[in-house]
Write a structure and sequence with these properties.
By secondary structure, the chain is α+β, with helices and mostly antiparallel strands. It has helices at about 75-85, 105-120, 140-160, 210-215, 220-225, 250-260, 265-270, 275-280, and strands at about 5-10, 20, 25-35, 50-55, 65-70, 90-95, 125, 180-185, 185-195, 195-200, 205, 230-235, 240, 245-250. The chain folds into two domains: about 5-160, no CATH class; about 180-280, no CATH class. The chain contains eight helices and 14 strands. The longest helix has 20 residues, at about 140-160. The radius of gyration is 21 Å and the shape is elongated. The two termini are about 30 Å apart.
């Protein structure tokens, strides 16, 4: 069922303080740029129990967003603590209840589940250390919080942070969502176009033979993939292997890495029948 998202620009700035809501849901998202912390001190919705995400990058060379997931009895108080103790984050995205029904136990449950999901989907560099334990909730409360979590994940992605979004499985239905292959220089990769880019699946290989045009255009790209634990060299040193699924910004960014050259991914990625991405999605 389609859901309506309402976004309110609190200060009139598209990248400023804003709130977001889903139709027929008691939850509310608050997107808080770090420099706007002082502006939320007296807001009622920022002095409630909340589940929150601190997002940013430790280093501009990082391929993935860095995130910390936490819970608070009072959101404002907790964020001011993080302002003094954590340097990496630039934005906080918090979720509260408009009807004030979230308790300490509820937000601790949501925190634990969000950390579990974030670790599984690996869409961010997670700053959380010790595994969070699920608090004891009644069966009805657990069901209510799982529904809250579903809407939270949807709204978190909608405001630009898909850190809890599952990556489409390689074994997905190929009739509606075809799998593509990219081959060359001994490398062979499988991937699929998704809403936020192009995913190359774990076990795919990429050449280590990089053209000068590629290295001139992307001098640190391979290095970043290695440092972020995406690829590693095979024993024969002629191929890299993907040790986890990875989302590239575009099909061409993916095929460039696989083939070690500047390529047109819309033509390089083909189904097993030989149809290109361009054939299926653009013609």
């Amino acid at each position: 069922m389609a859901k309506t998202i309402k976004i309110f620009l609190v200060d009139g700035e598209p990248n400023g303080l804003k709130t977001a809501e889903l139709s027929n849901w008691v939850g509310q998202a608050i997107v808080i740029p770090r420099k706007k912390l002082k502006d939320i001190k007296d807001r009622q919705d920022c002095n409630k129990p909340a589940i929150y995400f601190l997002v940013g990058k430790e280093d501009e060379e990082d391929l993935l967003t860095t995130a910390y997931i936490g819970e608070a009895e009072n959101l404002w108080n907790r964020l001011t603590t993080h302002d003094n103790s954590k340097d990496f984050w630039r934005t906080a995205i918090a979720f509260v209840s408009k009807d004030n029904n979230l308790t300490k136990a509820h937000v601790k449950f949501l925190e634990s589940r969000c950390i579990e999901i974030a670790r599984r989907v690996e869409r961010c560099n997670l700053e959380n250390g010790v595994k969070s334990k699920l608090p004891s909730l009644s069966e009805s409360d657990m069901a209510e919080m799982e529904e809250f979590l579903d809407n939270l994940r949807l709204l978190l992605t909608a405001v630009g942070y898909p850190i809890l979004q599952e990556i489409t499985l390689k074994e997905n239905n190929e009739k509606t969502d075809p799998l593509f292959l990219c081959k060359g220089k001994g490398a062979e990769a499988t991937g699929r176009i998704i809403n936020d880019g192009f995913v190359v699946y774990k076990g795919s290989t990429a050449t280590t033979q990089l053209s000068s045009t590629y290295t001139e255009r992307n001098p640190k790209n391979i290095e970043k993939l290695i440092l972020n634990g995406v690829i590693e060299k095979q024993k024969n040193d002629t191929l890299y292997v993907f040790i986890k699924d990875h989302i590239f910004n575009s099909p061409s960014a993916a095929s460039n890495v696989i083939l070690g050259n500047l390529t047109n991914g819309w033509k390089q990625w083909k189904t097993k029948e030989g149809q290109t991405l361009e054939d299926i999605y653009k013609k």
